[in-house]
Design brief:
Elements lengths: L1 H11 L6 E6 L2 E6 L15 H9 L3 E2 L5 H13 L2 H5 L10 H19 L3 H12 L8 H12 L2 E2 L5 E7 L2 E2 L9 E6 L20 E11 L14 E13 L4 E11 L13
Antiparallel strand pairs: 1-2, 2-7, 3-4, 4-8, 5-6, 5-8, 7-10, 8-9, 9-10
Helix pairs in contact: 3-5
Length: 271
């Protein structure tokens, strides 16, 4: 992770096509500013609705909620979205009961690990999903990446589900209305490369949970964490892809999305 903090100021300096890569636990962390990659249509554009939602959110410290409360609150928020269950939104399609139940279960377990992180639980999670071990030599880097999310503040009760890909067709993209997103993408640990939704003709579905979150960001000039009391309003985004071969959702991307593009450098999450 040291490479990330050391090189972060270079991103802020405005390098073109900047992508910052850090290898941890065999995967790659990618920090991307959409305005440098064609994902943002014009500087200064924002999604007013998203910014307003983040401003009015009721944030709680992660440490003030126990694991069961986190999971129950997220399940309640997601299951009350009738447009996902019934398909009332013409822009997206409903999840059937089996896939919806699986999605809510995966999302709630995953969010609880970010808010109340435990390296031992992380190792168990990876082993149960992949059959692969995570060595103890990864613990220091993992805990460094986990710290900002443990110390963040969340409004779990206003989490929402959005389709990202439906049968390979893109439905949501970071920067569509401006803003930027720092994310970590699965490189084959959880999902098979054959399910990659970006490939032409892909039948894959990707859905995401968006949770309002206040998180400490990095200073644009120094690349160091700001004062702890200064947190930016963002969305914590957990994306899952459906694996037909295993009949389950698995992590695909995890990121921090700032629709206003007002934050300096967003911390990169673990995957």
């Amino acid at each position: 992770m040291k490479t990330f903090w050391r090189k972060a100021p270079l991103i802020a300096a405005g390098l073109v096509a900047t992508a910052l890569l850090v290898v941890m636990a065999g995967r790659v962390l990618t920090a991307v500013r959409p305005s440098h990659t064609g994902l943002s249509p014009a500087p200064g554009r924002v999604s007013a609705a998203e910014v307003a939602t983040l401003q009015s959110a009721e944030y709680q410290d992660a440490s003030s909620m126990d694991v069961d409360a986190i999971k129950d609150m997220l399940r309640t928020a997601l299951l009350h979205q009738n447009n996902i269950v019934q398909g009332t939104n013409p822009e997206q399609e409903p999840l059937d009961a089996t896939r919806l139940t699986s999605f809510v279960h995966e999302a709630s377990d995953r969010l609880a690990m970010y808010m109340r992180p435990s390296f031992e639980q992380y190792k168990e999670y990876v082993a149960s999903h992949t059959g692969k071990p995570v060595g103890d030599e990864k613990q220091e880097a993992w805990e460094l990446a986990a710290r900002p999310f443990k110390e963040a503040r969340y409004d779990v009760g206003h989490a929402e589900v959005r389709p990202v890909y439906i049968r390979g067709t893109e439905r949501w993209r970071a920067g569509e209305f401006g803003g930027h997103m720092t994310y970590r993408k699965d490189s084959g640990l959880y999902s098979s490369k054959s399910t990659n939704p970006t490939k032409p003709g892909s039948p894959s579905d990707v859905y995401a949970v968006f949770i309002p979150m206040q998180i400490e960001v990095l200073d644009r000039n120094s690349g160091s964490p700001r004062v702890a009391s200064e947190k930016s309003n963002t969305y914590f985004v957990l994306q899952f892809i459906w694996e037909d071969s295993r009949s389950r959702w698995v992590p695909w991307r995890t990121g921090v999305y700032d629709p206003s593009a007002s934050a300096d450098i967003l911390p990169g999450p673990w995957l």
